[in-house]
Amino acid sequence: MSKKILTMKLLSEKYGVCRLDKKDLIPAWAQKGEFFSITRTLDELSIVCVENNIPSDIKCEKDWRVLKIEGPLDFALIGILASISTILAQKGISIFAISTYDTDYILVKESEIDNATEALVNENYEII
């Protein structure tokens, strides 16, 4: 039996990736749930959050699932995202990646999550 490369946790809820105006305040609805990510750039305010929290008038892409790489990961580790994205790209699965200080999160569309987890398990990743 092969040794597992990394363990990934599939979060239970569905998420949306939202685009707000660069000048908008960070809304309270975005900050609820097990996981959310907020990024402000010169061009936009981008929010990833539980899709059930997103108001209907917000521009967003819904139906994302989140795979969390169980960490913390050392900054010296090389190629983690490259390895995962290559495995999924070879299966024609698009991702949206978010990195934090401790770990990485891979977002995959709900329609592809079973294919994605199967592909990763076949490459010795553990999905919990």
Task: Give a quick rundown of the structure.
The chain contains two helices and eight strands, in the order βββββαββαβ. Helices cover 16% and strands 33% of the residues. Strands 1, 2, 3, 4, 5, 6, 7 and 8 form an eight-stranded mixed beta sheet that branches.
List the helices and strands and how they pair.
Elements: E1 7-10, E2 15-20, E3 37-40, E4 45-50, E5 60-69, H1 80-90, E6 96-99, E7 104-109, H2 113-122, E8 126-127
Parallel strand pairs: 1-8
Antiparallel strand pairs: 1-5, 2-4, 2-5, 3-4, 5-7, 6-7
- CATH fold name: VC0802-like
Strand content: 25-35%
The CATH superfamily name is: VC0802-like
Secondary structural class: alpha+beta
How far apart the termini lie comes to 18 Å
Unreliable runs, pLDDT <50, ≥5 residues? none
Total DSSP helices: 2
- Which CATH first-tier class would you pick? Alpha Beta
How many domains is the backbone divided into?
1
Describe the structure.
The chain has 128 residues and is of the alpha+beta class. It has a single domain, classed as VC0802-like (2-Layer Sandwich), CATH 3.30.2130. The protein is 16% helix and 33% strand. It contains two helices and eight strands. It has helices at residues 80-90, 113-122, and strands at 7-10, 15-20, 37-40, 45-50, 60-69, 96-99, 104-109, 126-127. The longest helix is centred in the middle third of the chain and has 11 residues, at 80-90. The mean pLDDT is 95.
